Amino acid sequence: MLSSLLLKASCLISAVGFASAQCNRTCDILYFANYDNLASGTTLTFANPYLGIQYSGFQVRDFTGNGVLTIPSGPNALIALNPYIPTNRVTFTVNRDEIRILDPQSAFIACVTVNKATKKIIAPVECNVQVVGTGPNYYIVEDTWHFTPTAKKTSSLQLFNLGDNFNSINTIELRLLNTTSKLKKNQENAIVFDEFIYGGRLNNN
């Protein structure tokens, strides 16, 4: 099992299933967050930052034996339930006590249908996820990730990369724009998120 890693800027990450990642000129430190050292059920909040980031809208879940999704390194990933525009966007914000600039590079995601009551995952679902980065002076950059399940009832998470235009931002929002699922009354959609690689500029530099 891979543990969450904190690497110096001169280091290079290379792992099975991942592209190599490296700090750019604005980056002092490189983070590899896979959430496997957190307890399942932990809710990540602004008051509970993790590896330089304050989260809003995410919960840690152990996906062992879930029967639907294959997690890149396992067992944990984040799940964001019903993250629709405009009220349920999920966000990442730099924890200014640790870093002041965020350079996101890549992450794995999937979209799923879940039972509202039990939160059990029912099936993967095709979707579009809008990624919005906000930088200093309200600079905004956007991208859209299109997730397609690898099978009808099961799927792996899909790797998505972010371009250099996302460098030097403060906040990222994920917005679930639409899916192909026809929800029943007791169902909702969710984003599953894992293996987040990003650089950061330390406060003392």
Which descriptors would you attach to this protein?
single chain, 205 residues, mainly beta, 9-stranded antiparallel β-sheet, 5-stranded antiparallel β-sheet, 16 strands, 0% helix, 49% strand, globular, disordered N terminus
Largest sheet: 9 strands, antiparallel
Structural class: mainly beta
User: Assembly type of the shown chains?
Assistant: single chain
> Percent of residues in beta strands?
over 45%
**Care to count the β-strands?**
16
* Average pLDDT rating: 81
The radius of gyration is 16 Å
How far from one another are the termini? 33 Å
Order of helices and strands: EEEEEEEEEEEEEEEE
General form: globular
> Helical residue percent?
under 10%
Low-confidence segments, given as residue ranges, are 1-20
Number of helices: 0
Walk me through what this model shows.
With 205 residues, this protein is mostly beta strands. Helices cover 0% and strands 49% of the residues. The chain has no helices and 16 strands.
Task: Please give the structural blueprint.
Layout: E1 5-8, E2 29-33, E3 43-44, E4 53-56, E5 58-62, E6 69-70, E7 76-81, E8 90-94, E9 99-115, E10 121-124, E11 127-134, E12 140-147, E13 155-156, E14 158-161, E15 171-179, E16 187-202
Parallel strand pairs: 6-13
Antiparallel strand pairs: 1-2, 2-16, 3-5, 4-8, 5-7, 7-16, 8-15, 9-10, 9-14, 9-16, 11-12, 11-15
